Amino acid sequence: MKKIVLIDDDPQIVRLLEDHLTALGYSVTTAADGESGFALVCELKPALVITDLMMPVAHGFDVCHRIHTDPALAGTRVLVISAKHFEIDKRTALRIGADKYLVKPFPLEELSRAVAELIGPAGEA
């Protein structure tokens, strides 16, 4: 089962996305801030990290950068989900290590497509 770490400080979004991704067959572990989320990423070595940008303790830009520069996490894909809709935010996230950027709110089908594009369907090895 492909592992995903979901990092977001909004409990409603976390619950919605966790339920959706779990129903698709992914294993999802969540964190409410960037620092605890990065610790989970280091521990679990997931296929994908989905992170918000605006969070307490450590923001999503920091999470992206830390994943991208850590050799032990090579191959870990990063999907940023954020209400920050400015092009500069998207370009910055992609420049420092994000693989894809979705602007909130987005349809769950768009999330499903992005996840499958980055790591493949849940049942695929």
Key words describing this protein structure:
single chain, 125 residues, alpha/beta, Rossmann fold, 5-stranded parallel beta sheet, 44% helix, 19% strand
List the helices and strands and how they pair.
Elements: E1 3-7, H1 11-23, E2 27-31, H2 34-44, E3 48-51, H3 60-69, E4 77-82, H4 87-95, E5 100-103, H5 108-119
Parallel strand pairs: 1-2, 1-3, 3-4, 4-5
Helix pairs in contact: 2-3
Order of helices and strands: EHEHEHEHEH
Helix content: 40-55%
Distance between the termini: 8 Å
CATH superfamily: Response regulator
Number of β-strand runs: 5
Please mark out the parts with pLDDT under 50 across 5 or more consecutive residues, or reply none.
none
Strand order of the largest sheet: 2-1-3-4-5
Proportion of residues in β-strands:
15-25%
> How many domains would you count in the coordinates?
1
Q: Using the coordinates above, name the CATH class.
A: Alpha Beta
CATH topology: Rossmann fold
Kindly describe this structure.
This protein is an alpha/beta fold. It has a single domain, classed as Rossmann fold (3-Layer(aba) Sandwich). It is 44% helix and 19% strand. The protein has five helices and five strands, in the order βαβαβαβαβα. A five-stranded parallel β-sheet has the order 2-1-3-4-5, sandwiched between helices. β3, α3 and β4 form a beta-alpha-beta unit. α2 runs parallel beside α3. The longest helix has 13 residues. It is globular. The termini are close together. The model has no long low-confidence stretch (mean pLDDT 94).
